[in-house]
Write a structure and sequence with these properties.
Layout: H1 15-23, H2 31-41, E1 46-49, H3 56-66, E2 77-80, H4 84-98, E3 106-109, H5 115-123, E4 128-131, H6 133-141, E5 152-155, H7 158-163, H8 167-175, E6 182-187, H9 192-201, E7 206-209, E8 219-225, H10 231-242, E9 247-250, H11 254-266, E10 271-274, H12 280-291, E11 297-300, H13 302-305, E12 315-318, H14 325-332, E13 342-348, H15 353-363, E14 369-370, E15 387-393, H16 402-410, E16 420-425, E17 429-435, H17 439-448, E18 458-460
Parallel strand pairs: 1-6, 1-7, 2-4, 2-5, 3-4, 5-6, 8-13, 8-14, 9-11, 9-12, 10-11, 12-13
Antiparallel strand pairs: 15-17, 15-18, 16-17
Helix pairs in contact: 2-3, 3-4, 6-8, 8-9, 10-11, 14-15
The structure holds adenosine-5'-diphosphate and magnesium ion.
Length: 462
């Protein structure tokens, strides 16, 4: 345990950077930031391990920005991420943190997007590159990317990159970076491959782990003993009883995910599965619908859910007990964010009691058991998500902005601001959440009306 100050002002950061942090509402450092920023700002290599949502992005972003010379037009920092959506999240966070300084150029390099545009962005000059290992290697092979001036290399979500088989790609990229650079490795867990990476590509790394414990009382945990053949049905009993608007359900295998989604959908729940092998576009659609509250249950394996930052999540259901107690801590930390209270519901069969014991040991407290028979279906019919998602054909490419869509719905269509939820503008399509009760009508009104002066194609996603 460190006794480091949690005040950003205790760091050697310029006043305009500190002022920007205050503006962003970053009033004090999170524990992983307080532990990793002092050595990172001294130029040390670090391996930092902390759970999802603990603020790891800002920890490395502030360090790489401190190493940056804005007047030098060359790539000075590179962040490797496992997926495009995480690379986009990291780019957004770096831009927010960099806005105290004029003209810092951040370029995202991920697969699934034409190379040409990325090459043009690189030619315009980039200070920071964020991307997936495969696409970055591609640019290196083609001679589009010069790393001679690189001073900071970041491996974000290193455990997940290893899970996805990126070890060789990471190694190839790292070998092309100047040996004098600083390397920062961030991870939620610490699998074996990480030691191998750090031995090969890091110098005297300082290892920092922030204990994965949650505030007592913020997360309410209940356990239910089930027989194998009643496990999936027990999930729908829990949903009917507790009626959480958004639930993340963890299974140990993809097959269990598929089976559970089939059972829930057959019973009329709005449930979707998140798999590693989904196409990027399908994955984006699933995540948009879950995050905008038009899907009640997202069913996922630990690998598929890693790194997801979902703000409002009322419940986590552990459909299977995980053999790794640290994974259990990561799972339950998805709920009870900020001031909200979180609900965790665990199903366990007799042969999983050994795993339950390991979790109790790590958490230092006994499990609270309840019988399934105390679950009663709530009133008001089957559980429905509060929102529904409309997909509009046309996105950034057509210069559609969230304001245009909101304007059309609250103007011509006559809806109130409260009936419209999250609006996600992607490259070629736009997703807008609306209150479930007006969804069908909104599709018609929007389809007959205009967005930004043009008629648009609209459909309801289910
Ligand atoms: P991780 O990478 O550890 O999963 P993120 O970097 O995505 O976590 O951060 C999670 C959330 O916390 C983000 O929305 C981020 O803006 C916010 N955050 C990060 N640092 C702070 C801070 N010091 N104070 C307040 N919010 C913060
Ligand atoms: Mg992260």
């Amino acid at each position: 345990m460190t006794s480091a100050s949690a005040d950003f002002a205790s760091l050697a950061l310029p006043p305009h950077v500190l002022a920007n942090l205050t503006q962003l509402g970053y009033l004090s450092m999170t524990p992983i930031q307080a532990a990793s920023l002092p050595p990172a700002l001294l130029g040390k290599d670090i391996i930092a391990q902390a759970k999802t949502g603990s603020g790891k992005t800002a920890a490395f972003a502030l360090a790489l920005l401190a190493n940056l010379n804005v007047r030098h037009f060359a790539v000075q920092a590179m962040v490797l991420c496992p997926t495009r959506e995480l690379a986009d999240q990291v780019t957004t966070e770096i831009r927010r943190l960099a806005r105290a300084e004029e003209n810092i150029k951040v370029v995202t390099l991920c697969g699934g997007v034409a190379l040409r545009g990325q090459i043009a962005s690189l030619e315009h000059g980039a200070h920071i590159v964020v991307g997936t290992p495969g696409r970055i290697m591609d640019h290196l092979d083609r001679g589009n990317l010069d790393l001679a001036a690189l001073n900071t290399l970041v491996l974000d979500e290193a455990d997940r990159m290893l899970d996805m088989g990126f070890f060789d790609d990471i190694a190839k990229v790292a070998r092309q970076c100047p040996p004098t650079r600083q390397t920062l490795l961030f991870s939620a867990t610490y699998p074996e491959g990480i030691a191998k990476l750090s031995q090969q590509f890091m110098q005297n790394p300082q290892q920092i782990t922030v204990q994965a414990q949650h505030e007592e009382g913020k997360i309410r945990q209940r356990w239910y003993e089930v027989k194998h053949n009643e496990r999936l049905h027990a999930v729908s009993m829990l949903l009917d009883h507790f009626r959480p608007p958004s639930t993340l359900a963890f299974c140990n295998t993809k097959q269990q995910c598929r089976d559970l989604v089939a059972v829930l959908q057959a019973q009329g729940f709005s449930a979707m599965a998140l798999f590693g092998e989904l196409e990027q576009r399908e994955r984006d659609q699933v995540l948009v619908q879950f995050a905008n509250r038009s899907c009640s249950v997202l069913v996922a394996t630990d690998v598929a859910a890693r790194g997801l930052d979902i703000a409002q999540l009322e419940a986590v259901i552990n459909v299977d007990v995980t053999p790794d107690p640290e994974v259990h801590i990561h799972r339950i930390g998805r709920t009870g964010r900020g001031d909200a209270e979180g609900l965790v519901l665990n199903l366990a069969s007799m042969d999983e009691m050994g795993y339950v014991g390991k979790i109790e040991q790590l958490q230092g407290r006994e499990s609270e058991w309840h019988p399934l028979s105390e679950l009663t279906p709530g009133t008001g019919g089957p559980l429905q998500p509060p929102m529904a998602t409309l997909q509009i054909v046309g996105g950034r490419k057509e210069k559609i902005r969230a304001g245009d869509v909101l304007g059309a719905l609250t103007g011509d269509c006559g809806y109130t601001r409260e009936q419209v939820g999250k609006i996600n503008v992607n490259e070629f399509s736009t997703y807008v959440a609306v209150a479930r009760g007006i969804a069908a009508e909104a599709v018609r009104k929007l389809g007959n009306g205009k967005v930004k002066g043009r008629s648009v194609k609209v459909r309801l996603l289910d």
